[in-house]
């Protein structure tokens, strides 16, 4: 189905043409029509399938159909999102969709001075895209009123729940207009997400365009079993062997990210880092340099898993598996976007085998294992039989290598989740 079939306002259609959009994605086909009619919507779709346009276009259309003057500190639309990177990206994207409309759009997030944000709010704003914490600060300081916010979007709702933002979100929504339209978009659906949906927007329509918690069909998944302390060596070898360029690699902690950066520099691989201890400006520069191809590897923690939209990104590496299986879906969603092909590679130590089981159970399929010569890791079943007792910590020789020991089924029994500090 084409966007032209929606009979959108000429200004919006002109913007879509300028962006090169003609054919709608499945989530856009199913969500735009009910949202345009003013209905509440809970949408579950694979990441990278056009969710921003699915909620932004119907809101822009309704704001065009029922124009109101821009007011100081009183937005008509409120979009809440979990991270500052995603807030910035949403603002840039929605500005492109609204480039021919007389609307003022503002992104609010922490890590920057509040005074400049306050001045922009006072000057008047129609659409506010914000992280919950920063918006709450502005509300407390009376810089913004949500009483006239008639359109509310909760983007990455599951992530906001995971990050503990639900109390702030609930507080903020209590201050919005009573007759508001609420749209919730989430890459994964859980009982908690459903519960929040029932609390915040009854009644509502549910839109699902993929099987529950699915990953994109365009992404190939592989796993390299490897000892934790050999991961950096394996990563460098694979980069050189396959001539990888523009690799987004995820670690689970800031310490792991810092350690990997040191190893990459030693190996002469150009890299930048993006995690919570870095300033907003530093993170911005790292992402910009990565997008422009100035660096080969971007090392990131979970803070960058949502919102990064890098055109043509072919490869995502999980240096460490995420603590939550659902976060695997979000991490690898940075590749294989908009129908393009992508590859997700995970380095899995013996301590992460249970986390891998959780991920395979979530996505409903077994991920291919690739055993790299020189980086073998033995199964815990084999070690238990050999030593006749439960193994709590991995034991390797000085070279960090162990002989592969497989069970009769060819698979290893999941190990206790025990992460390197």
From TrEMBL:
Molecular function per GO: ATP binding; hydrolase activity; nucleic acid binding; RNA helicase activity
Region feature Disordered, mapped onto this chain: 392-421
Biased composition (Basic residues): 392-406
Gene3D superfamilies per UniProt: P-loop containing nucleotide triphosphate hydrolases
Keyword Transcription: no
Residue intervals of the Helicase C-terminal domain: 218-378
Motif placement: Q motif: 1-29
Keyword Nucleotide-binding attached: yes
Keywords of the record: ATP-binding, Helicase, Hydrolase, Nucleotide-binding
Domain Helicase ATP-binding: 32-207
One Pfam family of this chain: Helicase_C
InterPro entries linked: DEAD/DEAH_box_helicase_dom, DEAD/DEAH_RhlB, DEAD_box_RNA_helicase, Helicase_ATP-bd, Helicase_C-like, P-loop_NTPase, RNA-helicase_DEAD-box_CS, RNA_helicase_DEAD_Q_motif
GO cellular component, one term: cytosol
The family this protein is said to belong to: Belongs to the DEAD box helicase family.
Protein name: Superfamily II DNA and RNA helicase
Organism: Amphritea atlantica
